[in-house]
Please model this.
Amino acid sequence: MSGNRLTIFDTTLRDGEQAPGFSLRIDEKLKLARQLKTLGVDIIEAGFPIASEADAEAVRMVATHVRGPIIAGLARCHSKDVERAAWALARRSGGVSTSSSPPPICISSGSCG
Model:
């Protein structure tokens, strides 16, 4: 098993804000991102930059100040989303994580193979 490696992709900084009435300030996201780095997380999804100016700036600050893990920003498959995430990650190489809906044929047939 020495050749196996588990990669940890953490969404706490983005998904954690899905709870009703809960949000993180930029300084709180930075503190949590530093703790995730200490825990050995490989990829940190720092936020959803198109959601708000504050979220875009938070992703930008995490990408600027947290070295080690790959920093990602969530984007839908829309050019404005991807451009905003790219702006937030421009100060270092990072990643844009995207998701897309299954094709209509998959939904209607129930066979998404």
